[in-house]
Structure formats: C-alpha cells, structure tokens
UniProtKB/TrEMBL annotation:
This is 4-hydroxybenzoate 3-monooxygenase. The gene is pobA. Transmembrane segments: none annotated. Residues 3-338 form the FAD-binding domain. The keyword Oxidoreductase applies. It comes from the Bacteria. Keywords: Oxidoreductase, Plasmid. One of its GO terms (molecular function) is FAD binding.
Length: 397
C-alpha cells in the first residue's frame, strides 16, 4: 500500500459508498478506517440511523448495494405525529409524488457495503488511523498508524475526508469556517427487544417533552426521549424509561417493556463546514456537516455528498474535466443547507422549548401542520428527500 488514485479516510456510509462507486469504474481507491471491522458492524456504539430517504434506497439498489436492504428492510408509506392525545398520519406517496421511506439500520447497511466492497476486490485497511496529511495542493501524502503502532505513508492523487463528526481531515482546510448551532436538549435512545409502538414511526409532541418511536424490525424497537444535554443516564433505570415513553405517547399507543440492548445519550447540534475542500482534499458526510437527528437526514446527506463527489471524480478521470471538483463545495451546499433547514424546522416543531413564548409559537405552528395540506406536503417532500438525495437519483437510471 504505497500509492493509489483516491484515498478515502473513514468507512462510514459516505466513504464506503464513494469507494464502491470508484472501484466499480476501475478507479483505484484505498479506504483507511481507524476502527476494527467488528466494531463497525456490531458495536452498540455504532447503532445510528434507521431511516433512509427514498433516494438513498434507490441509489443503493441501482449501484448494486441493495441486496440486504431489500431482503431485510421495510417500506414505510408514512409517519405519525402524536399531539394532544391524537394520532395524525402523514401519508407520503399522496403528498410527495409517490416517494416514501425505507427502514433499515445504518449499521446493517455499513456491514453490507463492507462485504460487497471486499468481495469485489476492494481494499479497506481496518484499524489504520490517519494521523496527518501533507502536500494537498500537489501530490497528497496520508500518514497513518498501523494496528501494530507503526507509522506509514500513502501517496494519492486525491484524498477524501469521510472521517465523521470528529474529523481530523477537516483541520487541513485553511480558512475553514464552522457555522454552528447547539440545541438545549439531547436524546436518550434505547434499542429493545420488543414490538415497536406502531407499524410506522411515531413522532410524539408532549408537554413532558418529545419522544420518537422507531424500529429496526417487528421485534426490535428503537425509541428516543427528549432530555437535557447534561442528563445523567444513571438516573434512568429501565422502568423509568418505559414509563416515560408511555406517558409521552399520551394514550395513542402503548409500548411493552422488553430487554434493553443499548442505552445512549445524543446531544443535539448542527454545523456546516465551508469550504468543504482544499487543493486535492475533499470532505463528505459528517466531516463537513451535522444535523440534529429529528428529520433523519444525516446518513442521507452523507450519501448525497458521496454521489456528488463521485460524479466530479468520474468526470475528471474519464473526461479530464476539473470543473466539478472545483465546485464540490457549491454543489454540496445545495442539498446540505436544505437538509440543515428541514432538520432545524422539524426539531423546533416537535421539541418542548424552554422559553415559554417560543413554546407558545411552536404549538401554534404544530396545530397548523396538523391541519394544513400545504404544510403536510412540505413535511412529506422534505422527509422523503426531494431536496437532498432526490437531486441525485436519476444518475443510474
Ligand atoms: P461516520 O458514519 O461517522 O463514519 C466515519 C468513519 O471514519 C468512522 O467509521 C470512523 O471510525 C472513521 N474515522 C474517524 N477518524 C478517522 C481517522 N483519523 N482515520 C481513519 N478513520 C477514521 N441519519 C439519518 O439519515 N437517519 C437517521 O435516522 C439517523 N439517526 C441517527 C441516530 C443517532 C443516535 C445518531 C448518532 C446519528 C443518526 N444519524 C441519522 C446520523 C448518521 O448516523 C450520520 O450522519 C452518518 O453516520 C454520517 O456518515 P459518515 O460516513 O459521514 O460518517
Ligand atoms: C431514527 C432516528 C431518527 O433520528 C429519526 O428521525 C427516525 C428514526 C432511528 O434510529 O430509527
């Protein structure tokens, strides 16, 4: 491992999708990943997204990464909003030109993509941590530490920073500005062996706080509670979590306690890093932007970035065109800010706000969403991904 055309740092959804797309075009690519394969595929710390936009589902299927998700995932044609003891359904196909969503865990998709990439002769170096970059304007060098603790160097024509929200590669972009927002809440998340609250996701707005009822399968529930960012998880024994989830459902459904497989706290924040590039280094996914989780946009934005950068690299290698690479930041800025906007909107709409005036406005807005066809359409179009992966689905058809 001395030289490659494209070096991808990070084997998350963004890095793996890009690497797969380049490899199947015969463009040499090497993936360096700090963690082990087992950690990525099985660690409870890597249980993340559960909802794919229709565009993400279509892209995965069209490029040959859809076998697992088609076999083991679920089509959902709507979500529920719960408010004041009533359930309101948002019907996606009728509101969003036939679009809907696909429920399949990100960790399963990552496992599928690793297996496929390796089967096809792709190169992933697990437990290789990237520690530095150099010569990004000429011939990039990537310095890494091997599992044995030795240092080595890889030379590449392009470097892709797909190294997630704690990105180290982001630090190599001079003049980078991080546009940030923090939120006064976090999610306490659980994964439990029990039936989900309903056959589709329920987003519940309750005076005690927001709660989300999601799933991975008909016997695996994934639920979240709005809590303070500094919440102490020790104060949440299992019985208290189940009781609170049921209170926040407000009587519209019931969850039955089951064995907990995971319990975690995710503080909410958002940022966009601009520019997303310098010389021959390009950022994709969480390395460049993070959204609060309510709109289920994070993984989908990572997929949109990977497709956008693939298109630019393909044009460079096949046609000698550099313009797509030069415009990487501008190209991604379009779907990134649409995703940030919707995530901000849906977070503000559904979470109980500490400021009583803002809380009054929030409830007024929610009542409009529940009764207005136009606002339901707005929610459905954004949730299913019209302005994010929706921009990119046509490429392989
Ligand atoms: P990551 O998945 O973070 O991958 C980055 C990889 O880079 C990691 O494997 C990491 O180990 C590796 N790495 C880091 N540093 C180095 C280094 N120096 N050298 C080598 N490798 C390195 N999104 C949705 O779309 N829908 C949802 O429903 C949703 N729910 C979520 C729920 C939770 C609780 C959380 C935490 C996130 C959720 N997200 C959701 C967001 C989504 O998980 C992320 O946006 C997504 O993981 C981003 O993918 P990525 O490839 O950019 O980064
Ligand atoms: C899940 C996470 C989300 O952030 C969301 O909006 C919907 C579902 C999940 O983990 O299932």
């Amino acid at each position: 491992m001395k030289k490659t055309r494209v070096a991808v740092i990070g084997a998350g959804p963004a890095g793996l999708l890009l690497a797969h797309l380049l490899h199947r075009e015969g463009i040499s690519v090497v993936v360096l990943e700090a963690k082990s394969r087992a950690y990525l595929e099985t660690s409870p710390h890597r249980i993340r997204a559960g909802v794919m936009e229709w565009g993400t589902r279509e892209i995965m299927v069209q490029v040959g990464l859809g076998e697992g998700l088609l076999r083991n995932g679920y089509e959902h044609r709507g979500i529920y909003l719960a408010y004041a003891g009533e359930l309101h359904r948002i019907d996606f196909p009728s509101l969003a030109q036939g679009w809907r969503i696909w429920v399949y865990g990100q960790q399963y998709q990552v496992r599928d993509m690793i297996a496929r990439f390796l089967e096809e002769g792709g190169k992933i170096f697990f437990e290789y941590e990237v520690v530095g970059l150099a010569d990004l304007e000429t011939t990039p060098k990537i310095r890494f530490r091997t599992p044995e603790g030795e240092e080595g160097e890889l030379e590449a024509e392009f470097v892709v920073g797909a190294d997630g929200s704690h990105s180290r590669t982001r630090g190599f972009i001079p003049g980078l500005v991080l546009k940030e927002k923090t939120y006064p809440f976090a999610w306490l998340g659980i994964l439990a062996e029990t039936a989900p609250a309903a056959e589709e996701l329920i987003y519940a707005s309750h005076p005690r706080g927001f709660a989300l009822f999601s799933m991975r399968s008909p016997t695996l529930a994934r639920n979240y509670l709005q809590v303070r960012p500094d919440e102490n998880l020790d104060e949440w024994p299992e019985e208290r979590i189940w009781e609170e989830l049921n209170l926040r459902l407000g009587g519209v459904a019931q969850v039955k306690p089951g064995p907990l497989l995971e319990k975690s706290l995710t503080p909410h924040r958002a940022y966009v890093a601009e520019p997303m590039q310098h010389g021959r280094l390009f950022l994709v996914g969480d390395a460049a932007h993070v959204v609060p989780p309510t709109g289920a946009k994070g993984m989908n934005l990572a997929v949109a970035d990977a497709v956008a950068l693939f298109q630019a690299l393909w044009a460079f290698y096949r046609k000698g065109a550099e313009s797509g690479l030069k415009r990487h930041t501008e190209t991604c800025r379009e779907h990134v800010w649409q995703g940030e906007f919707f995530s901000y909107w849906m977070t503000s709409l559904l979470h109980t706000q500490p400021d009583p005036f803002i809380e009054g406005l929030r409830q007024a807005e929610l009542k409009q969403v529940l009764t207005s066809e136009a606002l339901k359409r707005f929610l459905a179009e954004n949730y299913t991904g019209r302005h994010t992966t929706g921009r990119w689905v046509g490429l392989w058809t």
